[in-house]
Structure formats: C-alpha cells, structure tokens
Amino acid sequence: MTEVHILSFVFFIFGICFGSFLNVCIVRWPHERSVVKPRSSCVACKTPIAWYDNIPLVSYVLLGGKCRHCQAKFSFLYFFIELLTGITFVLFYLYYGLDIVLVPYLFMVCCFIIATFVDFGHRIIPDEVSLGGLAFGVGFSLLIPQLHTMDDATLAMGRIFMRILIGAIIVIHALDYAWHKFRESRGMDVGEEEEGFDLWTAVVVFSALGFDLLIDYGRGFLEASALSAWLPNLLSLDAAVIGFMVGGGSIYAMGLLGDFLFRKESMGGGDVKLLAMAGAFLGWKASILAFFIAPFFGAVFGVVEKIRTKDTTIAYGPFLVAGCLIALFWQNQIIEYIMGLYGFR
User: Fold this and answer.
1) According to the model, what pLDDT value does residue 47 have?
2) CA triplet 6, 10, 12: central angle to 5 degrees?
3) Per the structure, how many domains does the chain have?
4) Which side of the chain, N or C, has fewer Cβ within a 10 Å radius?
C-alpha cells in the first residue's frame, strides 16, 4: 500500500468517528439538548448503548440496524451520515493533501453536514453550527493565513461589496420605517413593522466594519510597526470579516427586500447566519457565487415539493451548502467562464 492509501484509510476512520458525533449533534441540537451527556440510548427502550454497540458503521452492520435489547430499528440515516462523513474526509484529503487548510475545511464541512440534515428534518439551522462555526472560521483565518490568499485588488473589491451591502441594508430599513410611519399617519393598516438589527447584530456588524477600516487605512502603519510579522494573519482575518459580512449581508439584504416588497418573511435568519459562517471560511467571492448558485438547486427542489406536498416553503440551507461546495472547488473556472461570456477574458 502507498502512503496515499494508508492516509486515505486513516482519514476515513477519522471521518466515520466524527460522523458518529455529528449524528449526536443532528439529533440533539434541534431540541436544545447537550451533546455531551447523557450517553446515547435506544429511543424505544431507553437502554444506554454500550461502547461496543456504538462503533461507527461496524455496530450498525453487526446488529442489523437494530437495538441489541429490544430489537427496535435504528434509522439508516445514522449509518449514512457516518459513511458520508468518512468519504468526505477522504475526498478533501485527496484534493488538498496534508495542507494546513485541510483542518479548517474539514471543520467547515462537518458544520455543513449538520446544517443540511437538521434543516431538512426541522427547517432550522442551529446557532451552534452557524454562529459557532463563524467564530471558528474567524479564529482559523487569524491563525492560518493560507486560508485566505487573495491579492490586494480582490480584497479591495470585497470591501466595496461589503460597504455597498451595509449601505443598502440601512436604506431598506429606513424605507420600511418611513413607509410604516406614513401608513400609520394616514390611519391605514400598517401590518408588522420590519424589525431592525438587534443590539448584538449591530455590535458585530459595526465592529467588523471598524476592523476592516482599521486594516484598510492603517496598513502602512502596521507594515512599519512591530506587528509587521502578523500582517498576513491580520489580512487573512480581514478577508474572513469581509467574507462573512458579504455572505451574510447578501442573503440578509435579499430577504429584507423581499420582506419589504411582499410584507412577509422571505428568508430565514438561519440561512443568513449559515452563509455568513461559510464566508468566514471561503471568502467573499465564494460567498457571492454560493448566493447565486443556491437558487438553481432550490428552485428545482421547490417545484418538486410544491407538486408533491403543495408546500411552498423549503429548507434552503442544504442548497446554500451545495452552492458553497461548488464555489469552493470550482470558483475560478466559474468566474472565468462568466467573464468570458461578457468578453472580459
């Protein structure tokens, strides 16, 4: 066996073990239960599952997918998620090798797997995934500058997008407030006024904007100071900040505009936070691509679900995940193709 085969097997083992933990998160987080305790137990007879009956993949096969004590069937989804995570770990290893960026990307894809299956099952995306993943994405970006290697022009363009989005969001909020007050003054039905930023959201947004302005206008000082050795890390952190602001801001602005025009909620907050999390890992360009790619998958699924169940709402998070993964691996090819269509190649 070659080194690649051996390491692929190692990553597969790590993957299925992580997949077992992801199963716990998928089952418990929607119900706001701890993933640490109590131990996993059979849903039917409540008997704690022994360690030898909880070996990823193996125990499911040996027990025929049933509880040892009461013979109740376990969902095949447990086996599938462990297998999916193991295969995903191997594929990411084969693509990135032992590059340091493999660590944050594997963490990100674990968050994606949890978000996908929880959203399909419960139409929510736990904050532990989106906000927790966002915090880790920012931290990884500071410690691993290779996560965001972009030239100054690309970084500057991301800043422009970020500031335009923040301005657009403020304008839409102001218009909604003015429209609400106008209808109120005329004694008309005002419906529900669009909620503004809550305090913590405002703190995060304006702190992120302040940090970016500090890096943008203080770069010369940083290069000449004792912090110059940390400049690549700070620029990577800035790219993550721009990424999560553009990712979350783009989908938030779209939802806000939809709310203003149609006077009903058009985008869930979990989707906003999920794309913000992805932006912290992937940067602003991949976030924008994911934002535009996701509706193609969502529209097809939405039509099928409309025909099948007559339900017009869908779990949108899984399609954002698909868009993010496509952007991660093929963003350069997609951008070059689009630019070629418009004669910019």
Assistant:
1) 86
2) 115
3) 2
4) N
On whether both 328 and 182 belong to a single domain, the answer is yes
Domain boundary among 143, 167, 192: 143
What are the two backbone dihedrals, phi and then psi, of residue 136, each rounded to the nearest 5 degrees? Answer: -65, -40
Q: How many CB atoms lie within 10 A of CB 11?
A: 21
Query: Is residue 102 packed enough to be buried (19+ CB in 10 Å), middle (13-18) or exposed (0-12)?
Result: middle
Considering the domain architecture, whether residues 180 and 313 belong to the same structural domain is answered as yes
What pLDDT, on a 0 to 100 scale, did the predictor assign at position 285? Answer: 94
199 and 324 in one domain? yes
166 and 260 in a single domain? The answer is: yes
pTM here? Answer: 0.91
Is the Cβ–Cβ distance between 26 and 114 less than 8 Å? yes
Tokens linked to 249: 């801001």
Q: Calculate the average pLDDT of the chain.
A: 88
Burial of residue 37 (CB within 10 Å: 0-12, 13-18, 19+) is: exposed
Last residue of a domain, one of 90, 111, 143: 143
Please report how the helices 152-185 and 199-224 are oriented relative to each other, as an axis angle in degrees rounded to 10: 150
Judge if 61 and 91 occupy the same domain: yes
Closest Cα to residue 294, out of 333, 261, 267, 256? 267
Q: Tell me the H-state helices in the chain.
A: 3-28, 58-62, 76-96, 102-122, 127-143, 152-185, 199-224, 231-262, 269-282, 284-309, 317-341
What confidence tens digit (pLDDT) does each residue in 18-73 have? Answer: 999 999 999 999 998 989 888 888 888 888 888 888 899 999 999 999 998 898 89
80, 133: one domain? yes
Q: What is the DSSP string of 237-292?
A: HHHHHHHHHHHHHHHHHHHHHHHHHHSS--S-HHHHHHHHHHHHHH-HHHHHHHHH
CB 167 within 8 A of CB 249: no
The domain containing residue 65 runs over which residues?
3-143
114 and 194 housed in the same domain: no
d(Cα 222, Cα 335) in Å, to the nearest integer? Answer: 32
How far is residue 251 CA from its own chain's centroid? 12
Phi-psi group of 104: left, alpha or beta (phi > 0 → left; psi -120 to 50 → alpha; rest → beta): alpha
Place of tokens 């994405």: 137
